[in-house]
Specification:
By secondary structure, the protein is α/β, with parallel strands linked by helices. The chain is built from six helices and nine strands, in the order H-E-E-H-H-E-H-E-E-E-E-H-E-H-E. The longest helix has 13 residues. It starts with a helix and ends with a strand.
């Protein structure tokens, strides 16, 4: 693990048996509350795209809003919230996506991204990939050019990264944790 990854991993709280027995929940609220770690995480997410023309950063509810907003600010890009069904007030486009135990729906405003705009999807963690894959498909449905998906944490044992890469999307992560 690199020095940066080690520093960021140390700022993330691990909670055993949450939300159910056998799961280790990776809580980034401790990273967000640590000014140095939060700044470092945002800087590392931004760095590969500095100087490139990125039109929008899309963030998934809710931690993706925090990280994505900071990344959008640093890249002078717009921010697009991707929310659970029924939370946005204007005309939306919606997609159903698979969860570990069922299906849910997410949506975004239909005019949030123009066809051909370059978009980076940002969230705190990639696990099984269901939500991120759904978000990429939703963005592509309205013509976005999704150039990358960026996460602070990767849980590679759960296979989400591979699902995104199978869609032809670059995936960047800062910290890997084995197990779940």
């Amino acid at each position: 693990m690199s020095t940066i990854a080690h520093e960021l991993a140390a700022a993330i709280r691990s909670i055993n048996d949450y939300p159910k027995p056998g799961i280790i929940f990776r809580d980034i609220t401790t990273l967000l509350g640590n000014p140095r770690a939060f700044r470092r995480a945002v800087d590392e997410l931004v760095q590969p795209y500095a100087g490139l023309k990125i039109d929008k950063i899309a963030g998934m509810e809710a931690r993706g809003f925090i990280l994505g907003g900071a990344v959008a600010h640093q890249l002078s890009a717009g921010f697009v919230p991707i929310r659970k069904k029924g939370k946005l007030p204007h005309d939306t486009v919606r997609i159903a996506y698979s969860l570990e135990y069922g299906v849910d729906e997410m949506e975004m405003h239909i005019d949030a991204v123009q066809p051909g705009e370059k978009v980076i999807l940002v969230d705190d963690l990639i696990a099984t990939g269901g939500t991120a894959v759904g978000a990429v498909q939703l963005l592509r449905q309205i013509g976005a050019d999704v150039i990358s998906c960026c996460f602070v944490i990767d849980l590679p044992d759960l296979g989400g990264r591979k699902k995104l890469e199978a869609l032809g999307v670059e995936v960047r992560t800062l910290v890997e944790f084995s197990g779940h």
